[in-house]
Design a protein that fits this description.
Helix content: over 70%
Distance between the termini: 34 Å
Number of domains: 1
CATH topology: MetI-like fold
Number of strands: 0
Number of helices: 9
Structural class: mainly alpha
Strand content: under 5%
Low-confidence stretches: 1-9
Largest sheet: none
Amino acid sequence: MAAPGDDQGQGEGEFPWWLVILGVTGVGLFYEVWASDIYTRVMATLVKGIEVTVAVTLIAYVLACAMGLGLAVAGLSRWRAVRQAARLWIEVVRGVPIMVLLLYVAFVLSPALVIGWNWLSGLLGFAPMQSRDFPFIARAVMALTVAYSAFLAEIFRAGLQAVDRGQIEAAMALGLSSWQRFRHVVFPQAFRMILPPLGNDFVAMVKDSSLVSILGVADITQLGKVTAAGNFRYFETYNMVALIYLVITIGLSLVLRRVERRLKAK
């Protein structure tokens, strides 16, 4: 067993045997997909859900990053009311399970937004809408955005506060405006530090996107449930569901690690 200070065991240069084991298992499963008619039919159905899963995750993550960055900046504001409002949002959202947020946004907040839209339509003269006109995939994206905005806000806040105060003061001495200081000095340095946790949250959102199946959104998990209920091949179907998620998440993790190493080398 390696000593506490030894580089063995968890060293970065250690050969990734876990990846070899997963690769061999994956090759075996892909061979089953190719050779088995049952797996082929299941895969043909599940592939349709990959596009939905990827689209929901990418859109929600980009929106959550923008919202989280705004909350982080608000949390560092000079005005107490703005700081407290940002902290209130973060604490409330972090304290509610993501599944509950999905249901709340889908069946409480979305109808309320429709009511607000219709009220404005009566004042401004544009066309009203009904709740059924608000697609569930949009509600799912909104819920994931709200849920992850709070977690990403804390990541951005930690990164922004970690930037050396002396560099900010030097930028002020050079006459840079607040936006220029943020754009050219603070954010580039903070981004290098927060990239690993940002990547971890992106991978986590890929997995949490499976929760949108409770709204009937035709993602990988929902199509897996429908397929298994129709053919009663639960073993084969959920093997494929798990394999697809593993390929996506492990592939993303490897790409993010490579990006991190390149940033460290600069």
